[in-house]
Queue: 3 jobs
Job 1
Amino acid sequence: MSETTTTAREKSGHPITNRVGGVFMHVSNMERSVNWYHKLFGMPERSSVTDKVHALAMQGQGLVLDQHGYDRKLAPKDRPMLMFDSPDVHAAYRYLQQIGVAPESRIEEYPGMAFFTFRDPDGNLLMVCGKPGSRDGLGGDGPGTADAKQEPLRYDGGGCELVVKDSAYYADATREGLTLTGRAFTESAFAVPLRIETSVRLEGGCLRLLYGKHGSLTFNYGPSSANGTGEEFYVRHPAVDKDFGYVDKGAIPVGEWVRLSWTIRERTMEVRVDGRLFHEQEGYYGNLISKAGIGCDNGRITMKSFVVEALSEEETAPRLPVSRNGTAADELVPDAACHPVMTADGLWLGYNEEWGCARTNAAYSAPFAVEAVVRSDTNSVVLYGGSSARVKFHPDGSLSFLDPVTKEELWAEGKGRLSGRFATVRWVVDDDRTTVSVDGDCRFEREGDYSGCRFAIGLGADVGSAVVVRSMEVEER
């Protein structure tokens, strides 16, 4: 039975299920932890992880890996330990108040899901999570202020007509604009390149601009102790289910009118607040046709205008010469999946659903060194040695190395941080050791027998990201 179907709730049903829905394991590096637990349980390796919270399905309960505590520098006592399921989170909240248990936080509510935290007598932090349920205690199962049989609320934003989704808890067209808690979308779909622009006032909670199957910009997000509000900014890729978090990015003003614009081109995104650049990010966003929208969680917005503007198309082109011992003798040939283009800065490579990279035509035997001048605004650069070796610079600033001989995945925390500008990455494979350096600074070193290594050199980005390669040189030692 679908979630939108109304069912009769048993009056005797308890609002907190006698079952542990999840056990929290707080981790500092989600990708490393997911790969470690997958190996532990014999599950397929995950080469990329999309969220700060990742649930592993276990036999009975879920193991919930959570990175928010480390990112927010929360004390261990302020990180939840267990999660209990609830068919009605609002009813569970009222029940705890009735029995004298003070919730630690207000309910955080999102489409189809809500949660809050509380403590046991020893101070252990616990969580209740499940369907939002009834706000008024009358047993209603769905959000909205109008009868489900009525026509949905529509609002003319001055450039697009928005339709309020049934997930909205509150929506009203006032003289100031559309006041909303929940989601509203355009009925029409729009193709990239485009610009979404809105004049909006945030009255608390977090604000979301929406585009694509997954895409969203989340402003003013924060920890549960602040009712899910703060100065965190999140970008979810419009084409792939991949999140990028910026914990100290800053917040937009609350209680004031602001003008937000989100420009999405084939290979770049740009976000502006009142005309000032707030965020920019590279990736492949071409071939998207989708509705646009706006929303608010744990608060309320008033939207005065909403416009989607079509922009002109961009041109594309491929390939990059590779120098070998000072002479142009090879090429970096990109897969079509990278959506390659030659820009004024160099060879642009992206990565969405389908993996791809650019690789040399020739294979090189140890000892050799490869030096690439690269830039990635998400700190996402991956060097490949055939299919057996990998040097990966992660968005969180860590570096990982997949050893081609032992097949071990080794991590160096804080050693993968790039400047955001062009950097020279040098990977040396000698017979008895391998090293990785950035702008002359050695970031990783490992001894081993690499004398039998021979592979083509590849370079690319991680999922949802892009890298620009200005130059590459291979030195046979």
Note: The chain is about 5% helix and 45% strand.
Job 2
Amino acid sequence: MPMRVATHDRWPDQPTPDAKTRTALLYRGDVVVAWGWTAVKRWTEMSSKERASHTYLEHFKLLLEDGAVDGVDTVCPLPPGVTRLQAVADFLGEMRKYLRDHLRRTGVILKSEDATWALTVPAIWSDAAKTRMREAAFRAGLTTAVDSRSLLLTLEPEAAALAAVVKDHASLTSTIARLASVSLAGTAASGVTLVDGDVVLVLDCGGGTVDVTLHGVRGNGVTMRLEEKVAGRGALAGGAHVDAAAMSLVRELLGGDVWDAWKEDHPAELTKLKAKWELSKRAFFGDQVASGMSSPAAPGVVMGWPGTMVRPAHVHSGDVRLQLPERLGDQLGSKALKALSTPSRDRGWVSADRSLVLPAEVVAKEVFDPVVDQVLELMADMLYEGRSTGTICNKVLLAGGFARSPYLQSRVRQVLPAGTNLLLPTDPGAAVVTGAAIFGALPAMVSGRRTRLSYGVGTSRPWTSEDAIHSAMKGTPIKVWNGEEKSWYADKAYCAFVKRNDLVNVGHIVKNFTPFSRAHTAVEFQLYGTRDNTAAYTTDSGMDKLATISLQLPTGWAAAVCRASDYKMECEFRFGATEFSVVASDSRSKNAVATTVTWDADLA
């Protein structure tokens, strides 16, 4: 059956066509009253009195990862009774209803049993964050069970790579609608896609995260397989962090007290200012424009000053000019505006026509570089690690919403190793969602992934001389007496299932577990993770307890054996897929065993 991939770029109240809608919610109490761009529109049009009874949220998806809260501006705190997981569930629920109604208007009836959902997640997300996303999808009604196979979580950089591979395959090209084409600046078109034998580094630069992965390509088109060559890495950075830095720069220029009061009283003006900044961000090429480099400005955006007009004194080509919001200018007052009118290449100024002038060199250094430098550092580290294992990258694919930035593109080009080509999707953000749809239909196209950590469990095992030496030096492991076995055991030992950077095919690893005592009603053990492949004990430095796994023992199990160690539970650990999962069964009856995985972070 031919596959057709179509992107939806006409979301309600969206100012310009885009494959992604705004990750935004508007609550009254704990009830959603608007989502997406409609939430933005209603919030900005509200009076101060109305806003007092509402809560507006943005970027809340990123909160699913522990530790992300400090780098995420949700605008308002989560409303009482709404958790980070519930906020994501509320958004997914609104999107599900919208898509159902939209398809119905086109004559398509969406049935839950016929649909497969592919949700994109950052590659750097922990297993706990992915589990929360799956739970949110279940609460939103996307699936009928938390562990439903009708939901696939798709790693964003892998999705971008899949879109680049499938793009020109003969059997798909004529049937794929709006699939982002991949263009290669400065080279012939023959090298624009991924082909058999390529090694591609994917830089997925989104709003809140940057993911860097390295993949080998085997085969072509829909028969192609991606195999991760080095464990991916990333950072909490991206376009949203650039936006926050830009607003911080303007606030510093105009004065914090005035800015904060205006921001509180006139959110509609702030939204318009951010929209103008977004256009400037997509066109910004840095202070290199001033030295004669051409700027690949975004459609409809002119960098610098139009050639048909006289450029104001002191304004250089490449500087960012933003019209000062009317009420912000009024709150500043004539005295402050006069003080700000003196041109300063060190910080910026307000021109005679009430435009904010932000020098290109200041914007580059203070707004873009803190994020772009992180991207380049991650890229360099990944290339180095690949070379150290004999894997030479020949193509770099730039994807994600922030990849639209000409400045980012320019900086990446400058550091590309000789002989390495840069792939630029026409719409970098759409490449990710397109690839997610392809993954939903053909998940086997990703054949293997590298583990980010060494994963294993805490266990007890027979005491050894090595344990005695380690215990004498560091106090662990603990020596415990096993009365049923009538021997000494080492507690707090670590049994690794996979090592960091292991290539794990999409499959499972089977391990047997036994109860420690006949009095137990469950086999309970802890899942640990560490970057140290030589770790031997759960107390070793850098060892993190990730989750507690409990396997329920059937009633009367102890009567079937003489010793607890004779009763085996067969446990399948699945590491090669996008998500970690575990399934257990009774090795005697082969019946499934009730299994629960409790992530430590969710207990806090």
Note: Residues 199-419 form one domain.
Job 3
Amino acid sequence: MCDLLGLNFSHPINTKISLDLFQLRGKENPDGWGVAYYGENKLHVIKEPMPSIKSLLFDFVEDYPRTCTLISHVRRSTCGGKRYANTHPFYRELSIGSHVQEYAFAHNGTLQDVSSLTSDFYKPVGETDSERAFCYLLDIIREQSITTWGSQEFARIESLLQDMNTPDNTLNCIFSNGDLLFCYSDETDHNAGLRFLSLSNISKSFELREEEKRYGEVKLGTSLVDNSNHIHIQGVLVSTRRLGNHDWTEFKGGEMMVFKDGRIVYPSDRKE
């Protein structure tokens, strides 16, 4: 079973994501881990085809990213061998005319039937069903020339993911273009689906905790802490599991939610 985590904040934060649970899950998910984050207007992807619990690089990544948007994944393979090309998150540059964006994608589940997921422009580098789905998704975005996102574009992509999410295909996924965080929860709640936690008015840090069990921490950078009285910091965490005894909200089966600047922008009935 794989684990997914997505973060989206209104301001760049120096994250201290001591997600001990995810590293411990590396014992159960021995085939790889990866982090994608956006900083200085660029996508950065760090990943390894090995258990996170054995990785010195994982410890470095916990402290480093200063970002508004981050995607994390730990992997147990069901398709594709244990190598870098098969490790999530996957990433591609999408160019439509002069409009260029970098997309990152991570998937939890198994797509048994990928016969319809043909892509003309983007081709998988590895052997995973997940990367094939990502290439198919990007091909559709490119074919439809989506450069500006609104409710109609979101609804089309949600419908596309629902069509992929057949009885033979389990699909939880998180992807981003750096500006938006897209999150889709499996129709039948595979791996318990996704849930999100909204954070607001963060002063210095937010600890993910349940009684004596500490899951991790989201920590603001020094510059933001010094000015926290003047900045309203909004954020959201999306995960395949509840990280602590907090007010998590479950996704509906087959629902896609989109976040920007730490707030819900789709669907409209979820907006705060």
Note: The chain is about 15% helix and 35% strand.
